[in-house]
Every structure is written in structure tokens, then in C-alpha cells.
Design a protein that fits this description.
- With 469 residues, the chain is an alpha/beta fold.
- The protein folds into 3 domains: 128 residues, 3-Layer(aba) Sandwich (Rossmann fold); 249 residues, tm_1862 like domain (pyruvate-formate lyase- activating enzyme), CATH 3.80.30.20; 74 residues, Nucleic acid-binding proteins (OB fold (Dihydrolipoamide Acetyltransferase, E2P)).
- Helix content is 34%, strand content 20%.
- It contains 13 helices and 19 strands.
- The protein is globular and about 60 Å long.
- Iron/sulfur cluster binds next to helix 6.
- Monomer.
- This is tRNA-2-methylthio-N(6)-dimethylallyladenosine synthase.
- InterPro entries: Elp3/MiaA/NifB-like_rSAM, Methylthiotransferase, Methylthiotransferase_CS, Methylthiotransferase_N, Methylthiotransferase_N_sf, MiaB_methiolase, rSAM, rSAM_horseshoe.
- Its EC number is 2.8.4.3.
């Protein structure tokens, strides 16, 4: 038999890229590729790139510079030919430019075409290079092989499943509608198949992902378009699935069925990422968000009315063109009113081809720095207060893997807080993986909760998924 070839894949950016990277591994497994942890010994290196902000985009070129050296060394030393692929959103947006700036690249493939990787790699061997950044007419999901059971088990008990891709919202700062294309939802039956297969192989928590996940409107088995709320309701009935999450949502697409899902489904975690970007109405209008700060607060209130323990996280952009001190103060005021469990905040980065990139009145860099600092301080304080409130309480933890210290086990709370626990003597940490157990929280270590099991694990406990097997 041929020696397996080694594949190293490095992902940048969002959860969708993490998911896509796994699917690329699945596409290449039948070609004889196995994953390796470093680029240096790889026969194939894939950079799965992010275009959302300039800093993320530029990373590709520095990575490629390093990879070219590794490739030359592999060729000079072991006489091994390393192929280099650029995938993801930078590939989509800057295909030709990548090849011009770094001739060592063999294949450029956009996020909608990676099911063609085996053909593109073969073409590149023949022709020296292959580039595919069209949005193909066929849906890649119909062509992606299912992950092998061993691959699912090795990835652990928590999995992402793409249910929706692309975005039709066209916020004026954002490249996603251009790099990921128009909004497309996968059919309910295909998602259900994926989730059942994951559950059969030990997965206990599924996060449904999409650039605009709550715009989901996939074909249901009844021939109608199902909403995300309805899909969640169906998935909550899959045996073995004990936790469901979804990300990322737009406030305008929160409908009554999604709110009802939070009311009715204990498996749906009370933690929602709901980006608002700014608290200022004029800035929200310039961003083309199509909602006001008050609209956003009303959406938050609807969630809280049915699930009082629900917590939120958000994304913010500071220094959008024309943002005044008063606009920024409105953002701080909104953050104070809502009270987040955490949030991501970014300095505005003009992206080529987006409407905001042509807006005058750029906010000076020093002002952006200073606003980012103030916003992050406020968010950090809210996050610390949220975490501190767990001390002394008993919280449910879904255990994911043995910890680094002997006897320790690591999991996450409903709010994705990491929890580190030393189980009772005589309990093998692995036997708790995949179970939800109550933990009494004693203290915090940075962002992690430390505590002890508040109940004896069931005697018949068996490892549900051997991670890293
Ligand atoms: N500049 C800064 N941040 C941006 N984001 C998207 N586009 C830009 C940009 N041009 C942020 C938004 C989005 C998150 C994924 O990235 O906050 O929600
Ligand atoms: Fe980008 Fe999200 Fe706006 Fe879509 S809704 S354009 S993904 S920020």
C-alpha cells in the first residue's frame, strides 16, 4: 500500500472555517491524506484564510512567506514536494493577487469549491497551478464525503454543523456577502442525517453555524421552509444530543419560533451571540443594519421574557467612519444597559469593495485605539462580574476531555465557561467525558471556573467518546 500522505491545515477566523477545515480533511481522507500537526513534515499544507479585517487578510502573506521556505527545505533535504493551497475567504476575494504575490502557491480555492480539491491538486501537479473561485452551480454539501466514525470520535464530543451559508444583509463594512456569497440554507433532512451520525459516534453538543444562522429557511420534510426554531426543535429530539447552540445571529431575524425554542427546549443553551456592532442609531443606519438600538433592546427583552437566565455576547466595531464621541458614548450606554457575559470588539477596518470603504471621515487611529480600550475595559468588567457570580453556585458542566493535571477533567458550562474539576478519587476522568454533571464552583482562574462534582457520577458511567483515539 502507498504511504499515507501528510496534510497540515491551518485555519484563521470564524467557526465556519474550523468546520470547513474538517470537511477538507474528510474530502482528502479517501485520497490517502492523514493530518499532521506541523507544516514542516507535510506533503500538503492548506491555509484556510479569513478576509474579515485587514490584519487577518495580511497574515496569509506572512504565512506563505514562511511556508515557501519550508517547502524549499523539504525539496532540498528529503527531496519531498510540498503542495501549498490557499483556501477560504482571502482565496475567494484575492485569488489572482495571491498567486502574483506568492508564486509558491499551487492551488487557490474559494469556500464554495473545496469539494473539488482532489481534482485541483491533480491539475496543479500537471499544469503547475490551479485556481477556482467561482460560485459553482452545484451545492458542495451534496459532494462532500461524510466524516469517518474515527474522525468524528477524534474531534470530541462537541461539533459544529453548517446549516446556512452566506449573507444577503450587506452591512456596509462587511465582506461576507462578497466572499461567502448569497444566503443558502441546507435542507432539514441533510442536517438531521449529519446530526444523527455525529450523535451515533459520541457527539453530545452541536452548534449550528452560519454567517446569518437565524435567517435559516431550509426545505423541511413537509415541503415547507423551516425556520431555525423549528429545526432546533427537531434536533433536540435526536437521541444523544444534550446541548444545542447556534451562531451567528442577526437581531432582525429573531422570530417567534426561535424565542419559543428557547422557552421550550432545555437542550437549547441559554447563551446567544447576537452582534449589534454599535449603540448609535446614526451609525447603525450608516452600517445598513436596518435596526435601531431600541429595536435591539426589544429583541433582548423577548429572549429574557421566556428564559430569564439567558446571557448574551455581541460583536462591536469602534471607529466606523463618522463615529463621533457621542455615537461612541451611545455604544457604551447600550453595553451598560444590556450587561453582556462577554463580547468581541474590533477597530473598523476598511475592506476593498465594501460601501463603507468609500465613506469619508475616517476616525483617526489614535481615537480608535482609545475607544477600543474603553469599550474592552467595560466588557471585561462585565465578563468578570458574570464569571464571579458563579462562585458558590452549582452549575451543569458537560465534560469534554481529561485535563492537563492528573485526575483533572475539563468541560464547559451552559455559558461556554471552561470548568476544571478534580473528580472524586477512584473516578477515571475519561469515564465522565460526554456527561453533564453538576459542579459546585469554588473559585476562578482567569476565565475558567474551578470546582468539585456536586453529585456522584453514575456507577455505570462509560466513556462516550475517546478523544484523540
Ligand atoms: N472592520 C472591523 N470589524 C469588522 N467586522 C466585520 N467587518 C469588519 C470590518 N470591516 C466584525 C463585526 C462582525 C465580526 C465577525 O467582525 O463585528 O460581527
Ligand atoms: Fe456581515 Fe453579518 Fe452584516 Fe451579513 S449580517 S453583512 S455577515 S456583519
Amino acid at each position: 500500500m502507498d504511504q499515507p500522505r501528510k496534510l497540515h491545515i491551518k485555519s484563521f477566523g470564524c467557526q465556519m472555517n474550523v468546520y470547513d477545515a474538517q470537511r477538507m480533511v474528510d474530502v482528502l481522507a479517501p485520497e490517502g491524506f492523514v493530518e499532521t500537526a506541523t507544516a514542516d513534515d507535510a506533503d500538503l499544507v492548506i491555509l484556510n484564510t479569513c478576509h474579515i479585517r485587514e490584519k487577518a487578510s495580511e497574515k496569509v502573506y506572512s504565512e506563505l512567506g514562511r511556508l515557501r521556505l519550508a517547502r524549499d527545505e523539504a525539496a532540498a533535504g528529503a527531496g519531498r514536494r510540498m503542495q501549498i493551497v490557499v483556501a477560504g475567504c482571502v482565496a475567494q476575494a484575492e485569488g489572482e493577487e495571491i498567486v502574483r504575490r506568492q508564486p509558491a502557491v499551487d492551488v487557490v480555492v474559494g469556500p464554495q469549491s473545496y469539494h473539488h480539491l482532489p481534482r485541483l491538486l491533480a491539475e496543479a501537479k500537471q499544469a503547475g497551478r490551479a485556481l477556482e473561485t467561482e460560485f459553482p452551480v452545484e451545492d458542495k454539501f451534496g459532494f462532500l464525503p461524510q466524516p469517518r466514525p474515527e474522525a468524528i470520535r477524534a474531534r470530541g464530543i462537541s461539533a459544529f454543523v453548517t446549516v446556512q451559508e452566506g449573507c444577503d444583509k450587506f452591512c456596509t463594512f462587511c465582506v461576507v456577502p462578497y466572499t461567502r456569497g448569497a444566503e443558502v440554507s441546507r435542507p432539514v433532512a441533510a442536517i438531521l442525517d449529519d446530526v444523527k451520525r455525529l450523535a451515533d459516534n459520541g457527539v453530545r453538543e452541536v452548534t449550528l453555524i452560519g454567517q446569518n444562522v437565524n435567517a435559516y429557511h431550509g426545505d423541511g420534510p413537509d415541503g415547507r421552509a423551516w425556520t431555525l426554531g423549528r429545526l432546533l426543535q427537531r434536533l433536540a429530539a435526536v437521541p444523544g444530543i444534550v446541548r444545542l447552540r447556534y451562531s451567528t445571529s442577526h437581531p432582525n431575524d429573531v422570530d417567534d419560533e426561535l424565542i419559543a425554542a428557547h422557552r421550550d427546549l432545555p437542550a437549547l443553551m441559554p447563551f446567544v451571540h447576537l452582534p449589534v456592532q454599535s449603540g448609535s442609531d446614526p451609525i447603525l443606519a450608516a452600517m445598513n443594519r436596518k435596526h435601531s438600538a431600541a429595536d435591539y433592546r426589544r429583541v433582548i427583552d423577548r429572549f429574557r421574557a421566556v428564559r430569564p437566565e439567558i446571557a448574551f455576547s455581541s460583536d462591536f466595531i469602534v471607529g466606523f467612519p463618522g463615529e463621533t464621541e457621542a455615537d461612541f458614548a451611545a455604544t457604551l450606554a447600550l453595553v451598560t444597559q444590556i450587561g453582556y457575559a462577554g463580547a468581541y470588539s474590533f477597530k473598523y477596518s476598511p475592506r476593498p469593495g465594501t460601501p463603507a470603504a468609500d465613506m469619508p471621515e475616517m476616525v483617526p487611529a489614535a481615537v480608535m485605539d482609545e475607544r477600543l480600550e474603553r469599550l474592552q475595559q467595560l466588557i471585561d468588567a462585565q465578563q468578570s462580574a458574570f464569571n464571579k457570580a458563579s462562585i458558590g453556585r452549582t452549575v451543569d458542566v458537560l465534560f469534554e476531555r481529561a485535563g492537563r493535571k492528573p485526575g483533572q477533567i475539563v468541560g464547559r458550562t451552559a455559558y461556554l465557561q471552561p470548568a476544571h474539576v478534580f473528580p472524586a478519587p477512584g473516578t477515571a476522568p475519561d469515564s465522565l467525558v460526554g456527561q453533564i454533571l453538576p459542579v459546585r464552583v469554588d473559585s476562578l482562574e482567569r476565565y475558567s471556573l474551578l470546582g468539585e462534582l456536586a453529585a456522584t457520577p453514575p456507577q455505570h458511567a462509560r466513556p462516550l467518546a475517546a478523544t484523540g483515539a
